[in-house]
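REVIEWER CHECKLIST
Item 1: Sequence provided? yes
Item 2: Single chain? yes
Item 3: Sequence as submitted:
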Amino acid sequence: MRIWLIFLVGGLATYLIRASFIVLGSRITLPERVERALRHVGPAVFAAIVAPPVVGTDGLSNRIPEMLAVLAAGVVAWRTGRVTWVLVVGMASLWTLRAVGL
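Item 4: Structure as written out by the authors:
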């Protein structure tokens, strides 16, 4: 029973934190400097998630499919600017390259 209470309280806390941004977001204006800085959070987080699997710690020679998939996704990002297409092309490229044995 205790574990369910922990799940419930954790879920409720997460929901309230996220809802506060929606409710308070229209009432609070951030300084221009903060808004400019926040524009870089998404790309920084994405790079932090993508870099370790691509670069790794065992050398780049084992990461050829990952590097080629990131390159393909980067070209799509540059040409379209659409995150959905970047993810689709990147993952499809990775899976295809791994399937053919690279």
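Item 5: Key structural point noted by reviewer: Helices lie at 2-25, 32-38, 41-55, 64-80, 83-99.
Item 6: Recommendation: ____
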